[in-house]
Amino acid sequence: MNGAGKKPKRVMLVVGEASGDLHGARLAHALVERDPALEIFGVAGERLRGEGVRVLFDVARLTGMGLTELAGSLTTLWTAYRLIGGALREEKPDLLILIDFPEFNLRLARIAKGLGIPVLYYIGPQIWAWRPRRVKQIARRVDRMAVVFPFEVSIYEREGVEVSFVGHPLLDAVCPTQSREATLKQHGLDLSKSTIALLPGSRRREVAYHLPVMLEAAERLCHGMDVQFILARASTVERDEIRRFLARSSIQVAIAEGNAYDVLNACDFVWAASGTATLETALLLKPMVIMYRLAWLTYGLARLLVRVDHIGMVNILAGEKVVPELIQEEVTAERIVRETTRIMHESSVYHDTVAKLAAVRQKLGAPGAADRVAEIALEMMGKN
Fold first, then answer.
1. What pTM did the predictor assign?
2. Between 230 and which of 239, 254, 300, 333 could a Cys-Cys bridge form, CB atoms 3.0 to 4.6 Å apart?
3. Rounded Cα distance, 354 and 377, in Å
4. What are the pLDDT digits (tens) for 229-263?
């Protein structure tokens, strides 16, 4: 607690997408639990707003994807950068906490460093996958790293960066709140049918690239299987955007709002755009097909830069292709249906996949990541 007459500590927190909003909200909750007088403001979404965070810029507006697609959102990104950079200079918070979104956040870190504001980076850039030299930039601009994969620690330690493995925040977040039966009934679905969840992405362009082919695959799959579909909408994608795509399809798809983990838990299989959703799916031990489509120029650049053998985090952690990955021209309705039926129709393949997903889950540490990061943050502000 703050003493009488002592100014409350102030934190700027910056996230860049739906997953960051989720993890940021848990962190904000943990911080305020420890210091109810703490003021938190920054780039945030629905969940952070729900924790009382003062929103300077809504994360839903930061909808760029990849390297070339960012061009369509440069005006928005520049507006956000000027606004948040200006707020750093004017408000001079006691701590800047950055969550993922490195292209944007590392620029803010440079401003903060120049102002003498300490910087804590939670869920840092995937330098082990691409742009490994960026670690030197991080060492110059970031005071402390809170990493979510154990193998990241040595990468930062080699550059003299103070780093802590805090465990993965999804271990706390991925918690279904109701039974499969209750979820299916809530969305008007048949308890006796196999159910597939559609996770087309958390950005508008991701949805545009993935949802149409998912719907085509759904139409094909219905000819050979008694199956039903439910789509979990990310908070950063407008409802009308989803409905526009569904209106063009003959397939019936339920839309779930705000209860993605209950949806995943109720399903037998998942079609997911590569990203955080694939790790969430893995933690619930649900077999899946991972897919990712980009603009061709972006893909070509990525091929030159990316240094990992897989796109899905579950496969990266496992060191093998536990679940199928479809990239670019491989993302077709035919391939999605083929991989889905191969796993769902072969009981041994299905159960082997589940067992390997359980092994991946064990590598992610123990629950309590937000609490550990909150303790680090308070220490950095001199409150412990």
1. 0.80
2. 254
3. 36
4. 999 998 878 999 999 999 999 999 999 998 899 99
